Fold these 4 entries.
Entry 1:
Amino acid sequence: MRKPGARAVKPRNAATLIIVRRDRKTPQVLMGKRNSGHDFMPNLWVFPGGRIDRSDFRAPFATDLKPEIAARFEAHIPATRGRALALAAIRETWEEAGLLLAKDAPARRTSGPWRDFVAQGVAPDLEGLEIVARAVTPPMLAKRFDTWFLMADAERLVSLERKPDCGELEEIAWVDFDEALALPLPSVTRMVIDEAIQRLENPARPRPFMRFRAGPPRISEL
């Protein structure tokens, strides 16, 4: 919680990636457990993701966002930030869970966290991304995020075999959606799982924009 009398902090731009695996009897989703030492949502299960990095604005990509997804971003934020958010979600999934949503692409010079992609001879695959929801954490928190929740099929991963030395997430697991809902989750993650289940059944359903505050969240449509 922020200190009494302190001004509310501006939410940081962030993105999360919901990866759905469909090669089992029932669809499964990738979840990870946050480290107990974190000051933000310790010990809770979440989707991989994190805040945007400056390098995400100039990162290479093999395929671009579908026009309708790019337009959905552009209705709310600048086009360059929408693509950077998509790239941030892919980068964070690679760093936290060791899984890479990418395609073969010509090598090119880059820097920072994107050097790992160049070393693999691939670049991010944005074409398969869908927007599920957007959520802004409440003003009473000391850390706030404006997070876009994106979704992609696991078949677009370079491999289902994880990079062994993943970072922040203590545990990684593929779980059925019912199993996911039984885990200790942040409230927003629980709401987004419910939304993802419904979106898999009805891809045309409206996308929620959730603004959390004291009391019930304010929900509109993206």
Entry 2:
Amino acid sequence: MRYRLGKAGDAEYEGSRFFGDPVVPESWADEEPWPEDCWFMCQLNLGELDSEGLLPASGYLYLFVDASFDIPEIRAYYSAEEPDTIYEDCNRGFDEVEWDIHTDYPIEFGDGPEGCFAAEGRGDDVIIMSLDPQAAGIRLFEGYRSVRAVIARSALSRMDLRAVRTELS
């Protein structure tokens, strides 16, 4: 399913978004499930996304970028709980990132540029999220035409999100 980024600063509390402050379950705000060197990339409200059965029909999927590597490494986390806490400290200390990751951009599903899509099957894999930075109109992941979070269908069926891998082109 394709998507586009909406107007900066217009993301809804429980909606899908890129950047800004994620809205997480309260228990996550108390003890982050992601490593300290990660910055928040996006949250997907799976109830908004027609994934044709590839992803759970409800809950939230969160993608973070691990900044401890020279090249982007995407980490994924899932919560079946309804988020109730805006996690304002998530992207603090990542001022070296080449884009304003502190401002939220709503994800508008259904229409969008080539290269920006979520939940697409590809053989034995599922592309959870694909981002073409240029098509999306952001200057992030400089030098890459495509940044994807990909997982094997077998790992996804077990919700073993540790198996998510990053594909760059």
Entry 3:
Amino acid sequence: MTESTPYFLSEAVSDPEFIQAEAFDTVVVKFTDFPMKDMPAAFDSTFGTVFPVLGEQGITAIGPAFALYHRMPTDTATFEVGIPVDQPLANPFTTDTGVVIEPSRLPAGDVARVSYFGPYNALPEGWGTFMYALSTAGKEPDLPFWELYVTEPSPDIDPATLRTDLVVRIKG
């Protein structure tokens, strides 16, 4: 990885990689205490509204879609779904359907990342493996953490080929 390549455009890594991440502007829809069982609806509503707004605002996506979690999920989660962009959204924007699109940032700092290949419904197992690898490396994860959906899903894609990069801040 060169310094000019954002970590979210880097090659897949099978073992945790520890890097100093820089912050990136994003455009997001925020969800607070949202039911985990309804996550697909959150993603669908976000991507159905964000991309048209980006075009209208003259903003370009520069990386894969992501979900940034602000707390550990239980039966609900508090998170942002969005896209890294080349410039910040000047102000929050409310669509005709009432969806609020806001400027935000992927955070800077010491992070660990790993690439997970498989279906989205198996991401908890991927996170478990990642957290175990971090603990055996003597690293302590911190909030927030995020998922980068590197492979764009489509109806005919083999779920085993979906690449999701898992990223977590590291304490100390």
Entry 4:
Amino acid sequence: MKRRFIIFLAALATFGLAVLLLPSPASAYGESISLHPSSGTAGTKVTVTGSGWQENGSRHIQTPININGSQVGTAAPNAGGTFRTTITIPDLGDKRLVVDVSAITGSGGAATAQFVYLAPSTGTKSGKCAPSIFITPGSGPVGTNFLIKGNSWQGGGTVHISLPHGSKAVFNTPSASPSVGTQGGWQSTFKVGGSTPKGAYQITATESAPRCGGTITKTVTFNVT
């Protein structure tokens, strides 16, 4: 009897060891995600594809999709352990950086992929813009068409073009509030109206540009001859 008891204890110890060596649920899955595209600017639509995940869709458990810890979307792994969802890259500022896109579930599954964030080019140096303004031609009689053009302003903004209060100039234009492109450029055309007296007229262009350190204000002069 004593011999049987010793054999039973040895078998029980072996079973316990086997239980301890079983893999944890988290390691039973090979969670991974991929991004397409894997780089872009703010507003880029990115498809996040996951594989090797624990099925959660039937239980309506959402898997959060995060960028640098902030949630930007959700996914629900299906019975095959896969998912596909679309996220939109938020505005992350005026700099190029690599951000982590991650998915995590309450069961411990997690995966991370990297996205290269490309800030719009605004002609900035150390966070400051270098705006410039040009006028072509700079003078002419009534009826002259001229162009005002800006470079390296804050991309995505709006420029407001104005004359001083009380100015007698009549400069006709399709748009006195042109939009600034992602590369920081804008332009607007004008035509000198028939009632404009001869003389030099100052034209002001302004843009609210917080990413460039404040409001941008530039002036040019057109001389009616």
